[in-house]
Inverse folding.
């Protein structure tokens, strides 16, 4: 439940002054670029791409029209214990790996499980488990279907797996709102800490659905790039020659705490989570509405107590699709006006591909690290800027200003879901 009103014409937002300060104290990720958060960030700054030709027999068997994707570089089978690996769908496997890294990074050793909460997200959930079970049923009969199939396909399976792994008993909540899912989980985590129902929240998202069904479906709707001969350069946000997004997989987790709790235990602090905005378009199942994104952005700014002029950096959703990139550019133009020329806009899906339900959390980590290290990451593969894009995205690592600055991370999803989170430097 969002804790502010959406009548933003008069900025009627609940108690901004005197709110608890919410901070990020740990990060973790497993991505197409690397098996952890900091190595993923280094690869991003170096301009690397995580997109590669898929080495699966099913690509040729089913004549899949798109033969590449941004698969996670480090496979869960090489990280998890065998029994744990076998009892989790890949979407939950990635979730546990990222959450454990973030928890360790936060240095949490002594905590009250009843005050530890999970706010997790996925866009599709256990598609691999579901379709493998269907194949087993058809080919070998019902007795051979795994008894753990239902717990593994549940969309809340990643949240539950994290909760059990880290003994989080304040709740294991799940968001499923397409590609806005894990940004919404961060906005929810902010609210849950403000409400006092936890001291620490593990927030983020995961996805693993690079499967013949999903690849074929996205390809059929003309959403995927078809640059089979050049995967590394296929994801081209804002480029006039872009032809679709690149499917990605993995997970990202952030540890959020009240500043009071973090300082009491001597934790390092990366950045402040200053507020979030969540809206819906009520417009179209796949086409975005710029108006809904504008409302979400204004809501995030209002809850954070920020003005557009306070924003130095935006990690844009920018999927490398024709309509999506232009719609988001319209949102940014409406919000920032002439100040947009002074905002460092990065589109990191050029490097990572699109992690669907996990993408917002990963881009939130990149936003946090951009504020921490004072550098906006590059948008790769941008050779010829689309004339409909009214600003120049960052194409090389770009130094951010000193002093107190703020940044936004945007996510928009099928079904008309919009989520924006605002961060401040510390």
């Amino acid at each position: 439940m969002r804790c502010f009103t959406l009548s933003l014409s008069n900025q009627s937002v609940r108690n901004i002054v005197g709110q608890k300060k919410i901070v990020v104290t740990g990060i973790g990720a497993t991505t197409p670029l690397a098996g952890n958060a900091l190595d993923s960030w280094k690869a991003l700054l170096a301009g690397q791409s995580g997109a590669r030709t898929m080495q699966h027999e099913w690509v040729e068997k089913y004549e899949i029209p798109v033969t590449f994707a941004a698969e996670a570089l480090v496979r869960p089978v090489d990280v998890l214990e065998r029994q744990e690996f076998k009892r989790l769908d890949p979407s939950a496997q990635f979730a546990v790996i990222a959450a454990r890294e973030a928890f360790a990074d936060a240095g949490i050793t002594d905590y009250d499980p009843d005050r530890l909460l999970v706010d997790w997200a996925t866009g599709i959930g256990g598609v691999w488990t579901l379709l493998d079970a269907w194949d087993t049923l058809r080919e070998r009969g019902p007795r051979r279907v795994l008894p753990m199939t239902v717990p593994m396909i549940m969309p809340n399976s990643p949240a539950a797996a994290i909760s059990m792994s880290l003994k989080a008993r304040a709740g294991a909540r799940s968001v499923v709102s397409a590609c806005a899912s894990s940004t919404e989980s961060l906005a929810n985590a902010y609210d849950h800490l403000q409400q006092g129902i936890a001291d620490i929240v593990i927030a983020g998202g995961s996805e693993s659905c690079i499967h013949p069904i999903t690849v074929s479906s996205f390809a059929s709707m003309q959403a995927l790039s078809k640059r089979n001969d050049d995967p590394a350069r296929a994801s081209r946000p804002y480029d006039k020659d872009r032809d679709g997004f690149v499917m990605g997989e993995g997970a990202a987790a952030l540890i959020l705490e009240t500043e009071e709790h973090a300082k009491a235990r001597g934790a390092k602090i990366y950045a402040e989570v200053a507020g979030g905005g969540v809206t819906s378009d009520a417009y179209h199942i796949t086409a975005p509405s710029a108006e809904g994104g504008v409302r979400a952005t204004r809501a995030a700014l209002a809850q954070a107590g920020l003005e557009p002029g306070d924003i130095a950096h935006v990690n844009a959703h920018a999927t490398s699709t024709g309509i999506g990139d232009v719609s988001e550019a319209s949102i940014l133009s409406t919000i920032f006006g002439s100040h947009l020329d002074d905002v460092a806009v990065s589109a990191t899906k050029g490097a990572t591909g699109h992690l669907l339900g996990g993408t917002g959390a990963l881009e939130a980590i990149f936003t946090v690290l951009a504020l921490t290290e004072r550098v906006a990451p590059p948008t790769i593969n941008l050779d010829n800027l689309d004339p409909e894009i009214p600003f120049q995205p960052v194409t090389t690592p770009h130094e951010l200003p000193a002093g107190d600055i703020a940044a936004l991370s945007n996510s928009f999803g099928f079904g008309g879901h919009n989520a924006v989170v605002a961060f401040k430097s510390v």
